[in-house]
């Protein structure tokens, strides 16, 4: 059933707001008030456009009485839904995410991390003539890249990695019903870790993936492994990673995410020579707001026509 003029609460900022203002459906748009709880909806709202890190971490364990009455569609600016309370996915409303919006930016970050590791980018930087020396640099060609998760991010990483001569393997939750060109299918994460020179975590955080990369898995990883995490910090046993680095089993880690974020003052990740820590920025790019707005407006077009929306979240799996 078509929705001729939706009532929208926009918590995504001015770029999306400007696009909503000229949408042909002439929506009524409420802009988010700073300091107001993101679940505190004005009366009559049927569309909520929201994002993490605006107060959802303080959401009550159960929805407030009458929450979401009349709400038909929720669009998240993120791919992962772990920032939100579980009750956001409950009910008969449709929830969609921004799957793939930042995939290219994240894939660029991953390749930067791998190149910096193999080419020893920090070690060869000269600060004076006393640093001048010959070094043997690594190569990407023929090395194995393992992808833990093969959604939009995994696909974008694989495309770039093959161009550099990396051999790509992957594990995925849904299995391998048919071959993926240029990607070696792995059924077991343990086998992928044991075969990979670079292991990239690119999967959602759910109850079943929490702590997936533990001390046991790292102990059996290929010696010299470089681990890259661009997904969620809680996928990884951080104490187990430290032990694996200190033992020399793991050669390095590039972490754009941690648990918690930020890590507290004095955490060993800040000073560990084998860890490159960045502040959860792999998703960012100059055009990310435009790309998000394009996705939101395409879904709004479908919504007002009564057509299926893109990137609907499965309430059972949480992504």
From TrEMBL:
InterPro entries: D-isomer_DH_NAD-bd, NAD(P)-bd_dom_sf. Keywords: NAD, Oxidoreductase. One of its GO terms (molecular function) is oxidoreductase activity. It comes from the Bacteria. The keyword Transferase does not apply. Residues 131-282 form the D-isomer specific 2-hydroxyacid dehydrogenase NAD-binding domain. The keyword Cytoplasm does not apply. Pfam families: 2-Hacid_dh_C (PF02826). PANTHER family: 2-HACID_DH_C DOMAIN-CONTAINING PROTEIN, D-ISOMER SPECIFIC 2-HYDROXYACID DEHYDROGENASE NAD-BINDING DOMAIN-CONTAINING PROTEIN. This is Glyoxylate reductase (NADP(+)).
């Amino acid at each position: 059933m078509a929705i001729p003029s939706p009532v929208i609460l926009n918590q995504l900022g001015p770029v999306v707001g400007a696009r909503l203002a000229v949408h042909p459906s002439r929506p009524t748009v409420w802009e988010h008030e700073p300091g107001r709880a993101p679940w505190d909806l004005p009366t009559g709202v049927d569309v909520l456009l929201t994002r993490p890190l605006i107060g959802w971490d303080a959401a009550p364990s159960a929805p407030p009485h009458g929450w979401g009455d009349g709400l038909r569609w929720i669009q998240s600016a993120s791919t992962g839904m772990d920032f939100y309370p579980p009750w956001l996915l409950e009910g008969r409303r449709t929830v969609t995410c921004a799957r793939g919006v930042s995939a290219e930016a994240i894939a660029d970050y991953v390749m930067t991390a791998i190149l910096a590791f193999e080419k020893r980018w920090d070690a060869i930087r000269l600060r004076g003539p006393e640093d001048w020396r010959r070094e043997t640099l690594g190569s990407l060609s023929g090395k194995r890249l393992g992808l833990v998760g093969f959604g939009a991010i995994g696909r974008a990483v694989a495309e770039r990695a093959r161009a550099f001569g990396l051999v790509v393997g992957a594990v995925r939750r849904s299995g391998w019903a048919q071959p993926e060109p240029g990607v070696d299918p792995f059924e077991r994460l343990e086998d992928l870790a044991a075969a990979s020179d670079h292991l990239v975590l690119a999967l959602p955080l759910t109850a079943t993936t929490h702590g997936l990369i533990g001390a046991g898995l790292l102990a059996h990883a290929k010696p010299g492994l470089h681990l890259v995490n661009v997904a969620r910090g809680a996928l990884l046993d951080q104490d187990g990673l430290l032990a694996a680095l200190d033992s020399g089993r793991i050669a390095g880690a590039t972490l754009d995410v941690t648990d918690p974020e930020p890590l507290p003052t004095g955490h060993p990740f800040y000073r560990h020579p084998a860890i490159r820590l960045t502040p959860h920025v792999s998703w960012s790019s100059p055009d990310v707001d435009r790309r998000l707005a394009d996705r939101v407006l395409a879904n709004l077009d479908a919504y007002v026509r009564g057509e299926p929306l893109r990137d609907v979240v499965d309430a059972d799996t949480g992504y």
